[in-house]
User: Fold these one by one.
Assistant:
Number 1:
Amino acid sequence: MRHLPFDVVIVGGGPAAAAEAIRSSRRVRRVAVVSDGYGGCMRMLANQRMQSYIPELDIADGTRRLAAYVQGLERTSPTGREFATYVFHLIRDVPIAHVTGNVIGIERCGRDFAVELQGPSGFAVLKAAEVILATGLTPRDPGAWAPPGKTVTCFQAYHEIGLEQTARYAGRDVAIIGSGNSAFQLAASVARMARSVVVLAISYVGLYPQETNDRFGLRAPTQQTLEMIAKTAARDCLGPLNARSAECIAPIWLHVYEQLTWHPRERCLTAFVRLGDNTARVPAISCALARSAGRLRKCEGADDRYCIKLAGENLTVISAIGVKARVPETAWNKLVEPDSRFVRHEHGRTEIDGLYVAGGCAGYPSVNMMQSPARTSECPMPQLEANAGGDAAFRTMGLPGAH
Ligand SMILES: Cc1cc2nc3c(=O)[nH]c(=O)nc-3n(C[C@H](O)[C@H](O)[C@H](O)COP(=O)(O)OP(=O)(O)OC[C@H]3O[C@@H](n4cnc5c(N)ncnc54)[C@H](O)[C@@H]3O)c2cc1C
């Protein structure tokens, strides 16, 4: 076990880590960044476009501009791959130690921290006075409704669709559980290959900014999906996604559900739907069409309660029910806030002295809303011209994955 002393170790390799690497390298001398995948989680989108516009995604004080990575003059948003490449290059440019590895634990080591990692050539420990967690997001665990062996998370679905691995969706009935942008955007993607697509939402959050002030409201690419849902059964009424030229576009349905149940013996997923929860225009149209098509059937003895049964043989379920912080094992069991499932913090400071948090795992919903942690004592060290000490130290010590 070897210990190298760093002033700051940043755990993560996405946009938050890039911003913190730039900032830390100007403040202190010995900085390391550790990641199991530089570029961040947006790489999973591959050639699918992000929602944010290019200027919203530029990292402040970076050496590069995102616009240089975006192909096509008329494009306003990058693809996931373009953004990840930009972030990768930004981090690589910062003259600090770059370590490839998965951080498996963080604990106190005297007044410092011991950051334990598993790299390509084994286990190592980095010692640091400060640690910044910039470890991003992971999907929330699906509930008991999830059919075993038939359910994937939205991250898996984005990843597979990005790689054109379509076996799980092509010719199948796809149920997408979720009410956010991921659910609707995945619906549009899988509709190009699936037999049918149903979005089962716990609520209809409305379009931002027309129908809601909620910043999580549904955005422009989602609007196209909603248009397609509204026109699902009216095939002579063409929208951008169900134009006749686009082959194999499956109908997309949208229902706000009250309850979901997986019946293992019948191998069937049942969604219970109340019409009273489906009064917004698009779900109301979709429910009316589904009733006339015999897809939504009235439950016995209930005025307003209907159900839709999705048979297991041909079913794929995508769980798009939200995200939570991805954090390595630590000795502090109150680090993550149980309700929000993000790291508990005040202006980026956790309850543990010297442990900071940035980006998605701190609950910031988008790149342009991220804020850097404010230090307990903002006492900058003298700025240094070059900051390559960490890299050299890694090369001489032969630590795993240092490059
Ligand atoms: C489907 C989807 C679409 C989105 N679209 C947008 C959008 O258009 N615009 C926008 O602003 N935001 C978008 N977001 C939110 C976006 O994910 C975040 O804004 C951004 O990626 C967060 O950056 P981050 O650096 O905090 O985390 P990430 O980008 O997740 O990067 C964290 C990185 O840290 C590394 N890591 C994690 N744990 C460890 C560990 N233990 N050891 C070593 N390395 C580790 C991982 O390799 C990971 O790549 C989207 C999110 C999703 C899920």
Number 2:
Amino acid sequence: MAGTILVGYATRYGSTREVAEAVAADLRERGETVEVRPLGEVYALDGYGPVVLGAPMYMGRLHGDMLEFLTWHRESLQEHPVAVFALGPLTDEPGEVEGCHAQLEKELAKHAWLHPVSVELFGGKYDPGRLTFAHRLVAMLPGTPLHNRPASDARDWDAARAWATDLAERLQPASVR
Ligand SMILES: Cc1cc2nc3c(=O)[nH]c(=O)nc-3n(C[C@H](O)[C@H](O)[C@H](O)COP(=O)(O)O)c2cc1C
């Protein structure tokens, strides 16, 4: 693959960072050079080849660092192959997963200039004991999906690694396939 792969992530509680690291580990096993960085610390894409962007969903939106990154780097992102993953559903219950897919699609549709080679949604992690004050308030509201929800971790490490393996193939220049 041409150039260092940037795996950039947004996160509030760390679960997306861990998935970003799993994706990066798989790509490295395939011989790629990979840098894993928080999106808020990436100021330019110079020197990178493909860009993998990961972010959690919050209240139907992609994490703000991801939205900011897409806005700031709109022009340069169009010169790189881009892949996107998001974390969201807290169970593998089909209704919840479909709802999160719809949220992600709606968010990405706001950036129609972005043409990712691959988009994937992974299960997320939830720990009510670690919520910020604002998120605790959200979780306290009766009728919201987080109300009285127990801690859970729906991340599927095999799925994350399988996605990375597939990415390594998709991001390969056509000439060396
Ligand atoms: C307050 C709150 C709101 C959330 N809203 C959504 C949502 O709208 N859609 C979704 O799919 N997941 C939602 N989630 C689940 C998160 O995306 C999931 O917990 C994710 O793993 C968090 O990532 P992070 O640890 O990298 O911050 C929400 C979680 C919290 C705590």
Number 3:
Amino acid sequence: MQRWVIGVDLGGTQIRALRTDLSGKKAARAEQLTLAQQGPQAVLSRILETVREVTAGISQEEILGLGIGAPGPIDSAGVVHDPPNLPGWKGVSLVDELAGPLGLPIYAGNDANLGALAEHRFGAGIGVDHLVYLTVGTGIGGGVISHGRMLTGWRGFAAELGHQTLDPDGPLCGCGQPGHLEAFASGPAIAREARKALEQGRSSTIPEHADGAVTAKSVAAAAMAGDALAIELLRQAGYYLGLGLANLIHTLEPQRILIGGGVSLAGELLLEPARQTVDQRLMSPVYRGVEILAAALGPDVGLMGAAALVMQEGGSPR
Ligand SMILES: [Zn+2]
């Protein structure tokens, strides 16, 4: 019998669903807007609609299970704890809400944790059982694979890698605390520094690459075209990223670190300064040589991770 796995990514903007076979090969996908301001019940019914789209024509017993990734905080039981981009989701259990209507085993996790699982199973982390994954975009999230398993912590809240304090007097993070890694190296942080430099009169081609407001994307485009200020801004973000990575290397001793998310599209302009900083900040040469590479899976990483969670928890051998 053909066996399928369903992966769902519940984002603040979009709900996306995917059906794959057990090797991760995509067979169907669907997406629609989350319209999060309409509240949990409306969003849950849209999740069910997207799942029904990707399971049309498939019999129930062919489906091994459904995995769903959601923005943290979400606990190991699949209860969502009021994430900023999903208003009204206080204590809503994705597992309970979806298991009844779908009649499937449901597995839920933090979207960035699932990104690590996806890269481990299908992407740039294949064969590496001690892996750190960071997604650098609007925020900075992360996931840790230790001994081949996702590190979840006691209740499932582990691996908020973007919320480590690098400077107690630093700029405010998206979470409200000062000086977290996310406040220095996320897309909005890079854009903030760019606007500040431009307001101070620095000459740069960044505005020419901006479609309206200056964003990290316009900084990256200008940097790739050789703009000195843009290169400096990415170097600075890479420096802070490297400080964070050195902390993670000391704490977790991964074999490989993968950087994904929109900002990672700046490539070596971000990664090389991060590697240099790591090399300068290690407490002993024994920690040297950790591979710091770009992640492989792109925007589908959360969906693939949700599918990978079913394969891991549902007992599908790798
Ligand atoms: Zn924070």
Number 4:
Amino acid sequence: MLNPCDEGFLSRLAALLPDGTLRPAEPRHLEEPRGLYRGRPGSVAMPGSVEEVSAIVRAAAADRVGIVPWSGGTGLVSGQVMPEGPLPLLLSLQRMSRVRGVYPTENVLVAEAGVTLLAAQQAAEAAGRLYPLSLASEGTCTIGGTLSTNAGGVQVLRYGNARELCLGLEAVLPEGSVWHGLRRLRKDNTGYDLRGLLIGAEGTLGVITAASLKLFPRPARHGTALLVVPSPAAALALLSLAGERVGTSVTAFELISGTGLRFQRQVLPQLRQPFAEPPDWSVLVDLGTEADRDPVALLEDLFAAALDAGLVSDGLVAASEAQRQDFWAVRENMNEANRRVGAILSNDISVPLGLIPGFIDAATAEIARSGPFRINCFGHVGDGNLHFNIFPEEGGTRAAHDAARGPLMRLVNDLVAAHDGSFSAEHGVGRAKVGELERYGDPAKLAAMRAIKAALDPAGIMNPGAVLRG
Ligand SMILES: Cc1cc2nc3c(=O)[nH]c(=O)nc-3n(C[C@H](O)[C@H](O)[C@H](O)COP(=O)(O)OP(=O)(O)OC[C@H]3O[C@@H](n4cnc5c(N)ncnc54)[C@H](O)[C@@H]3O)c2cc1C
């Protein structure tokens, strides 16, 4: 049983830390982007070094006080907000925001956990390199947060997710020891993969304080097309064709539905819409090429070949950088349009690429049987990762369908499981999806996860109740 973070604990902790490290939590520490969970007023520790993080965790372990790591606060499954249970200490990595080194010859950047994703991208760019992780929240989310949630985003297809972009970590383990794993090695087969374990652990196995990250050469040229496809199956055939004709230059392959475009017309009329009439399905294809390959010519060639093969019926290849930005604005404003329309249910699922068309057909048919709902199915289709979000009928309200939320979630997730998929492709489990993990998780894996948690964090102080029920 944990103890609350009370005055006695805070005064013992204050004696170990520089003045000003402990502060009252601010409103931003208690909120999360979906507005579904709210933390309680308490205290936040803002350490400036790994030694201070270690002192905090050691004290919390001794007094059995829960710690909730908090970085940018942009997590979508409430891992960073704990609404119930003994009051925890929030631990913000915000002051650990130094880029410790950039090694262009090695294609490596070493950054502290509180560096924002945008700042890491900019540090790589200043060295003529690319750190390719890219999310709409990149101005606020941090290296520590993206690794702890194993974030994905729009360039996973080419470069991989946060886990695949990380070479080493520095972290404080739940009893307070510091793991100095900040290696810059591409090859290091020396025992269990602790780095892999901490990435995606959502703060339940320790606190990430710094990371060494993989960099890449920057593509010299970029091109983007919006291609109208008759169906999701055609979109996947187009992805294969793009692989054959363009190779690894495809950085993003995003599915866009007609429902999503209609939502944008309705609630974001200032956005320039690329098509006069929203097509039922289209894909945004983005290329990054070397200097001697013309991305516009490559996209036009792909468009022509896809027309011949009956995979596309219409399309636009961006003729300027401004037009390219307009195309991307359509994709990047999808979440905002959804928010303004008001989803009954939003999710973040993945299924094997080959099963996507069958999944979309089955889920659409079953939801239609449940009621007059609208579906905006969009996302990183090149990674098999879809947001299959469900909205009220035209003129209806989300509040009127509150009771439908649970059954709709069960319906979608049961179908995801039946299609060999995952109920959480890139957002994690947090507190919002603990029940789903218990229901759909593999029993052997769950038992191993519980054993790992008990071994590394016997007092259960690290992010109590996130991922695994306490
Ligand atoms: C507009 C918007 C768009 C988004 N788009 C995407 C997307 O395309 N793909 C995607 O994957 N996600 C996306 N997200 C979700 C979110 O940005 C990611 O989950 C991000 O990785 C969270 O980083 P953060 O720094 O904000 O972490 P927080 O929200 O502060 O924390 C997230 C989790 O990690 C833990 N944690 C944080 N820092 C540490 C640390 N240093 N050590 C240990 N544990 C820690 C927290 O306890 C919590 O469980 C989006 C969110 C928004 C608001």
